[in-house]
Amino acid sequence: MSGERWTAAGGQLMLDQEDPVQVATKTIDPTLDEEALAIARQSASSSPEYYAHERAMRRYDVPLRKDGSFRIEDVRPGKYMLRFTIYNNPVDPRLPLGEVGTAASQITVTARPAGSPDSAMNVGVMQLIRLKRLNVGDPAPPIHAKTTDGQLWRLEDYKGKYVLLHFWGAADECTPYLKKCYDAFHTDGKVVIVGLSVGNDLESLRKYATGNPVPWVQATLGHWTETDVPESYGVRNLPTVVLLDPNGRVVARNLTADGIMRAVSNALTSGSENTTRPIRPGN
């Protein structure tokens, strides 16, 4: 990460395994209403399964030196995700730090043979991916993803339709609202939904999709280190839902809950392919 100007950074090394929330909420019925779903998730997140999985996870905070180097002591063997978030001070010092981008890498730490000298593992140079600012009215960046049946899904094949992009990873509270949207709008073929899994390989996605079927396409973008699609859409947290118009432009971002249905309904009513007027989640 040398050559970049930055004023602050936060880093974490985390064992590359399922999130405790994902493990604890696997058995929850996603068709429950909003209130029942919230209660079920709260209960699952305080369950013995949640705490057992959380205890098994390993996290190491990673201090980053000014020259971009770092060192983590006494890391136990395992497969890890190393991730940094880079910040820069805004012009106005009263404002919070502005996020510049992220750098991530999957690394495998192997056991040191008994009697061998202590030595550091060099993980090499990590590439900083700058945070994109995707605004309403901007053209949507291209997406190529692998579906659960091994086919290539391409965003450019859906010009002429409204497309809901559902970026998700572990626990996901958007699916019930997407199902409502699908039931309401899919029959005339104007609205397409695609689930874009981030952080899951194809086999993991297939297993999840088998146990949690939905009537729209599910595809994987791979791990964060294998794709720049989330960054190109400004996705910082999962899940994130983005609505595109028939011309492939952004209509609304960061949609949640019933705001998904409202945004699609408003777009269909106003014919947003002919305007760049922002459609906000609460409209």
Descriptive account of the structure:
The chain has about 280 residues and is α+β, with helices and mostly antiparallel strands. The protein folds into two domains: about 10-15 and about 55-130; about 145-275, 3-Layer(aba) Sandwich (Glutaredoxin). It is built from seven helices and twelve strands. The strands form two sheets. The protein has a seven-stranded mixed sheet with strand order 7-6-10-9-8-11-12, covered by helices on one side. Strands 2-1-3-4-5 form a five-stranded antiparallel sheet, with no helix packed on it. α4 (about 175-185) links the parallel β8 and β9 (about 190-200). It starts with 7 loop residues before the first strand and ends in a 13-residue tail after the last helix. Mean pLDDT is about 80; it is low at about 270-283.
- Which fold name is given in CATH as the topology of the largest domain? Glutaredoxin
* CATH architectural designation of the largest domain: 3-Layer(aba) Sandwich
- As residue ranges, the low-confidence spans are 272-283
Radius of gyration: 21 Å
* Overall shape: globular
Question: Into how many domains do the coordinates divide?
Answer: 2
Give the class-level CATH name of the largest domain.
Alpha Beta
Number of helices: 7
Please trace the helix and strand order, writing H or E for each element.
Answer: EHHHEEEEEEEHEHEHEEH
Which structural class do you get from the secondary structure elements? Answer: alpha+beta
Give the biggest beta sheet. 7 strands, mixed
Number of strands: 12
Distance between the termini: 41 Å
- Widest sheet: strand order? 7-6-10-9-8-11-12
- Oligomeric state of the chains in view: single chain
Mean pLDDT: 78
Strand content range:
25-35%
Percent of residues in helices? 10-25%
Q: What's the name of the CATH homologous superfamily of the largest domain?
A: Glutaredoxin
